[in-house]
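Journal club side-thread
Mid-discussion, someone asked how the predicted structure for our own chain would compare to the paper's figures. Pasting it here so we can look after the session.
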Amino acid sequence: MNDNYKIPEITFQCRVGDEEPEEGGCPIGGEFVGKTTTELFGGKRVLVFSLPGAFTPTCSTYQLPGFEENYETIINNDIDEVYVSSVNDSFVMNAWAQHLGIKNIKVIPDGNGELAKSLGMLVDMSAVGFGKRSRRFAVVINDGKVERMFVEPESSADNPDPYGETSPENVMEYLNSKVVEAA
């Protein structure tokens, strides 16, 4: 992916306003609201990290909680917003964020894999029953253009779920270096 690649116009179907019934069960009563890449990324410097699936072990144990824990530090490094994306629908993304107690990171339900595909990160994970999913990546987007991509290496027998390039610590190291350069 070339730096300054312009993210295409994509509309994500975000579910808002659902409430869990008193007797339990799935949240209901909300509606779908389309949010575009222009609305989310235009005129801002944002960080988006994406992963193979909500509720999966590395994503739920390390990646999303790690970014949530470091949210203030990331925002203090000239980032306007932090998003997590996955090729999951909005119901799943919202339930996952709620389950993990996420308060700051915003979810992007890339249900059709359009964002992942536009960045060359859509992969076929049919071998493990996932179908088309996002490869694990992080990207700094500046006014709708790619500033910097972080991509995990291909999985292998020795390392079936690579994780390090897209960790909050690695991304923050880059963001800190940009702040130092600007000073």
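Post-session note: The first helix runs from residue 37 to 41.
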